[in-house]
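FAQ: What does the model actually see?

It sees only this:
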Amino acid sequence: MLIKNARIVNPWGETFGDVLIDRGRIRKIGKPLYGYMEGESIDLEGDFLFPGFIDVHIQGAGGADILDEDEEAVSTISETCVKFGVTGFLATTVYKPGFENKHLEAALNGFSKGLNGARFLGFHLEGPFISREKRGMIQESSVCEPSVKVLSEIMDKCKGWLKMMTLAPELEGSEQVISLLLENRVIVSFGHSSADYEQTLKAIRIGVKHVTHFFNTMPPIHHRAPGPAIAIFESKDVTVQIISDGVHIHPSMVRFATRILGEDRIVLITDGVRSTGLPDGKYVYNGIEFISSNGTARYVDGTLIGTSAGMSELARRFAKFTGVPLSSVAKVASYNPARLLGVEECKGSIEEGKDADMVVIGEDFRVRMTLIGGILFEA
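And it is asked to produce this:
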């Protein structure tokens, strides 16, 4: 396939040209390319060509949720993600200690049958080793004290596909859990935590280098009790997830955080729930009704539980709130998550030899089409 007349947006800047795809990879980039017209040719007529977005924090989409215990759920999420330019995702969910947690097996079974959309890149578990005071939308049944025994059960259930775990490092017993996770090459993410400034710095020193939905479900900044946010700002090797819907974090705080952190440390996420890609209305998560409105999902008591907007819309809002160039959007939505997951050698930018995972976006920032391994998905 030859993609012609594309405004190619990479993490380091923009170029105009053609992209040749061969056997699922980017074979050649030029302006223009001639003599490669044997296969399909698509003229973008100046639309943007971004590297495929990677969402490391999405719970559900298209009416499905990873928690559903349904093998079709991961497939539905995969097919919905691709409509918003997402080419790979971490299936994000919870773990209920003492229960069978059949949803993890169901997701793996669904993945093994093949997905017609975004690639399943593994699991991200929020908990169960989190603060009860900062559990947010996570129910009490999905929370317990740090336990090597429970972690062992989780690892068995995930069958090597656990890629990230959110935990509260201030909890007693967390250090041993963190060590075991790091030994198994699992990203340990600070989140749903009541840790103070000093406890956060200690966690960072022992290997917690990522942060789940920055600012949310953690103590706020105070001039006499700086809290975890200041420790995170000061730690240059820590990356953070940001939900740029303008509700989870005020637009001015998105702008402020971007200015302080720098674009290299931000990973854009959706924290998407089952209402993603569906009309506003009432839905159910884990047996509890929630309301989706204008891209934001809340329990009826007002508790935020995630978004419904989709990655392309959150990327648009991030650009609007911060005023950064489109190359920075490619960095926070594509390259940084690829680097976090250790797959930047084959994903996250449009370069010769890399996977042909790309998304075509118009001036209005709506997705026109998405390519995954060179396979075309119309929006």
